[in-house]
Amino acid sequence: MTGAATEPGADLRLAPPPWHPLRGLDSAISPHVAELEAHIIGWADRYALLDDARARDKLARTRLGELVARTYPTILPARLEAVSGWFTWAFVIDDCFDRCAGQYDETAARTLRVLAGDREPGAAETRLEAQLADVWHRLTAGMGLTWRTRFTQHMAHFLAAFKYEAFNRRTRRVPDLLGYRQLRRASGGITPSLDLIEVASGLEVPALLHEFEQTRAMFDRAADVVVWVNDIVSLRKELAAGETTNGVLVLAAEREIGLPEAVDAAYTLVAEQVKQFEDAEAELEALLSRWRGLEPEAVVAARKFTDGMRAWMRGNLDWSFRSDRYQVTDGVLLSTDTSLLAPKPSGPER
User: Fold this and answer.
1) What family does the entry list (predicted)?
2) Is residue 250 within 8 Å of 176, Cβ to Cβ?
């Protein structure tokens, strides 16, 4: 008698070990979880972004509002709808590109034109572009040109990464570690997510402070922690889907080790990234205390931004083990509708 098929990676331990520094970061959550969840579903319904009732149920079980609540625990009530709208857009477009081969560069260009407010005359607008335009109008209220430029650049990186992930998937290629470190920070959508810390708090970090070497190091390390933890937690799902662009698989191939050892190696790498974040944070704090002429509100904004990056590292971990997006490998995507990525070509009526 043949036993039941075992799910790929079912025997892997994916939670961080007891010693891990991620466990030492404070865990917090906004009291507005229910409101955020309602906004998520509201955005998806308003613009008809989901495939069907199963996809709608999947979105609810993803607990996307909880992700926002855990990663922006002090989010202002006035910012709930705008921030939840961006996450709805990001998760839908991610699922669209998961199985839909598309005109990646064209979709990226169309999306960036939405952010630039530079629509071509007479250009058809997809439902996803219309939703993003609505979200963008809300996100940018009160935000300066420097922030809008930075966010747009990070969105460009996020959109460009889909093409390279699709190539790896199509050719069954596991990328090398050197290249993967660069691709993953972009493909995870974490850099624009970290930019939203300033939107959620209503405190914009002055341009010079944001480009301090220490702030940049913290930003990159926080981004790396989030995407590498995501790779670990989503490993079973990605093995089942035949995904090849995953940091655990990269480490396994690079070091010629098994998956359990690669998971351990990934968590060791994450621990190093947390340590580097904290070293840069200490340097930034010393710099802020010595910088002459620095306005008190700039110091507050920088510290709030630091707190936000810490919240993202821990909040992502807490959410990941509660979300059906990674814990249930049912193969259901939020959307596979290619018309969300580019307008369907018009033709003569029949």
Assistant:
1) Belongs to the terpene synthase family.
2) yes
The structure tokens listed for 349 are 């009526």
DSSP-derived secondary structure letter, 50: S
Q: How many CA atoms lie within 13 A of 322 on its CB side?
A: 12
Residues with Cβ within 8 Å of residue 178, at least 6 apart in sequence? none
pTM: 0.93
List of residues 6+ apart from 124 with CB closer than 8 A = 343
Write the single-letter amino acid at 164: Y
Task: Answer yes or no: CATH 2.60.40.2550 is held by domain 30-328.
Answer: no
What ranges do the domains of the chain cover?
A: 30-328
pLDDT digits (tens, 9 = 90+) for 145-184: 999 999 999 999 999 988 888 888 788 888 889 989 888 9
Helix axes 213-233, 177-187, angle to 10 degrees: 90
CA dihedral sign, ordered 40, 42, 46, 49: positive
Q: Left (φ > 0), alpha (ψ -120 to 50) or beta: where does 50 sit?
A: beta
Asked if 31 and 63 count as a contact pair (C-beta separation under 8 A), the reply is no
What span, in angstroms and rounded, lies between the C-alpha atoms of 334 and 81? Answer: 20
CA atoms within 13 A on the CB side of 195: 23
Tokens 């050719």, located at residue: 171
